[in-house]
Design goal:
- The chain has two domains: about 140 residues, Rossmann fold, CATH 3.40.50; about 180 residues, Dihydrodipicolinate Reductase, domain 2 (2-Layer Sandwich).
- The strands form two sheets. A nine-stranded mixed sheet has the order 14-13-12-11-7-10-9-8-15.
- The chain is of the alpha/beta class.
- Helices cover about 35% and strands about 25% of the residues.
- The chain starts with a strand and ends in a 6-residue tail after the last strand.
- The chain is built from ten helices and 15 strands.
- The longest helix is centred in the last third of the chain and has 20 residues.
- Strand 13 and strand 14 form a beta hairpin.
- It comes from Paracoccus tegillarcae.
Amino acid sequence: MRWGLIGASNIAADHMIGALRAGGGTMHSVLSSSADRARDYAARHGVESACSDLDQMLDDPDLDAVYISTTNEKHFAQAMAAIKAGKHVLCEKPLAMSVSDAVTMVRAAEQAGLVFATNHHLRNAGSHLAIRDLVQSGRLGEVLSLRVFHAVYLPPHLQGWRVDNPAAGGGVIPDITVHDADTVRFHLGEDPVSVVAMATQSGLGKGVEDSVMSVWQMPSGTQVQAHESFTHRFAGSGVEIHGTKGSVIARNVMTQQPVGQIELRIEGGVEAIEFSDHNLYERAVGLFADAVAGKGRPAADGRDGICSLAIAMAVAEAARSGRRTDVDYGGI
């Protein structure tokens, strides 16, 4: 598969280019708004060509698919242009700045017969696959509650627009809450009905929230609590799922690396759960390529991206208004 990188980004450089190549992909082109940056990025990462014009990139008949990792406010227009040009799309989260735009993107790809996926990496981790197996196998019994804690410190080289630019989609809710929303959906197999939330600017955020806590009402009655932050240097991350027969306690698993520890606590004692240490992104790319070949579906498809965005948007509105907010999934 010949890939176009829409966005000369850190995540593409650090994680995705290697994963795309591991899946047999060729780095055909890269797009940046700066022609100089595009050329420099292409030279440093072995990309065949550099572009600063989206139409020029997409007009290339040799291009098969695009990976979009620009700032959030650009995703919609870029994805729609790629779909119109007949390219398969792997898009970073959140898909768009509104649920309605995300729905438009996904439906356009479906109508065009193209594969559209959301790059929700955590559901590809061996740790989260193992946790999901514990839930689905019934070892926890009836699930009573889930707590996800993803309060970390955003390193300086990733701050920029994420901490000071609401117009670009900055803030911890579109950056991390949206990932946790997908992770909760992945483990529980259901979507929240409504949420309550509080957010704050606790020192790092300038015009955007840098910490948020929320509680979600699930259709089954399971209680969900989520905590995300850019400002917690020493908190660690993880997820806990508690059921009538046992609890799973996972530490340091909300990460791009295949690391962490999982314990299953049941009446008979505590069991350490082993899990695969495969590359998260390589698994996602492999499933995407399979879907393009007509075999299966992406790890997280466009509808998964719509749902995670809808939950994050409801958390943002609940925090802003101080009221319980229903989650609007845009009619999907």
